Every structure is written in C-alpha cells, then in structure tokens.
Amino acid sequence: MVKIILLGTGTSQGVPVIGCECPVCVSTAIPDQRLRSAALLTDGQTNILIDAGPDFRQQMLKHKVKHLNAILLTHEHNDHVIGLDDIRPFNYRSGEAMSVFTLPRVASEVRRRFDYVFSEQIPGLPRISLVDIDKDSVLQFGNITVQTIGVMHGRLPILGFRFGDLAYLTDVKTLTESEMKKLEGVRYLIVTALHQEEHPTHMNLEESLELIRQLQPERAWLTHVSHHMGLAAEINERLPANVRLAWDGMEVVWGL
Question: Global pTM?
C-alpha cells in the first residue's frame, strides 16, 4: 500500500492571509486553515516529498517525518522551493546529499537562489544533488513508480505527477491532449482549484470540475485553494458527491 499525505493545500500566501478578516481567514475550522501546498508520498519505508515551500519545516515536524529519500519539485516559485534550506537535518541523519528531481530550468533557478549551497564548502550548509527530469520521465523509488506529467501554469511549463492510481496536479491551468492521455484510468485525482473567478495561471473551480468530468476518477480533491474560494463547508455542499476540497493532513491510501 502507498499513501499520500497533503502537507499543505493553500496558495502562495497560505490561509489565513496576513491581515485579512474575511470569513475564511477568521474561521477556526481546520479545513479553512491551509499551509502552502506540498505532499508526502510514503509506503512506510520510502518517503518522497513533493515541493518544499516556506512551511516545509513546520510540515515535517507536524507529521514527524524522520527521513526523506527524495524531493520532487513541480516548479520554481517560492511557495514550492524556498524551504529547501531546511533539509539540513535530513542531510545530518543520512550523511548524504538530498536528491532533488526537477526540470532543468527549475534546477538552474534553485542553484541561483541557493548559491551558497553550491558555491561554498562550509560545514552545516544544506547538501543538494539536483537531478534533471522532464515531462516524460519515469522514476523508481523502492516500490514507488513516478510518472511525470507536463502541465501549463499559465505560460510556464511545470510538472505534475502520477503514482499508479493517483495523480497530483498543482498550479495547473491547462494540459495538452498528449498529457491528458497519461491520466487515463486514474482513480484518484488531486488538482488545483484556486477560487471561483477566472485566473490566468490556475484553474478555477469550474475548470477543475470540467477536468474531473473528463477524467472521471472515483474520487477527486481540490488543492492550492485560496481564501477567495469561500468557506470549505459551504463549498463542499455544492460539489459533486465524489469531489471535495482537500485539507491539510488529508490522506489517501491505495495499492501499488
């Protein structure tokens, strides 16, 4: 069995947003409190992290993660990479550099933002080994197979991932027909739904529901959700029976 844990289901600002007093941001309901989007894939032995944003340290502590075998980065925006400095405890435990798999463009950006990691040999710095992948890569980590999916984040090509019966697509706006074919037969889908209005770089609720109708998964959950979406309890009442807003700490378990 393999499990995905959603470590964060919010947008780049998180929810609540600093200084905001909208109904969502003042809500005390757990589904309305969202860290930046990230996920942990595990089969009990192998742990694969998807994205390492500004809440990375908090997410690792909350879920008591003691080791990571690798990190997959969807793209280079700060809410998905800026927590990489906090991999140091994993380096110390393993004695090895952390393998970080991503697009060559994203790897170059990581080298630029974390120049000190790659240019200095000072004890205590993070150790990162960048591995280039593309939209057609198939990766194997223990018993876990990862198929990359090329999606568009507005005009920016980024990565989604399929792990057997489950696919994880964050920050997506559009997919080509060829990439849609990689998602055929997926049973479980986790996909962006930013809010209800049109947005140039993310699917809104209507677009996400249309993708779900096309793929027809058994269950689907909406992630990377903004405070502009509305209260989770109210939105869930309006969604199809097999679709719900995702929430921080949510888990999905399926067979390999």
Answer: 0.96
Domain membership of residue 35 (yes or no) is: yes
The sign of the CA dihedral 7, 49, 223, 2 is negative
What's the structural domain count of the chain? 1
Residue range 194-207, pLDDT digits in tens: 999 999 999 999 99
Is 253 a domain residue? Answer: no
**What is the pLDDT averaged over residues 227-234?**
98
- Whether 67 shows a pLDDT value over 90: the answer reads yes
Domain assignment present for residue 252? The answer is: no
Establish if 63 belongs to a structural domain. yes
Instruction: Give the model's pLDDT for residue 22.
Output: 97
| Domain range enclosing 73 | 2-245
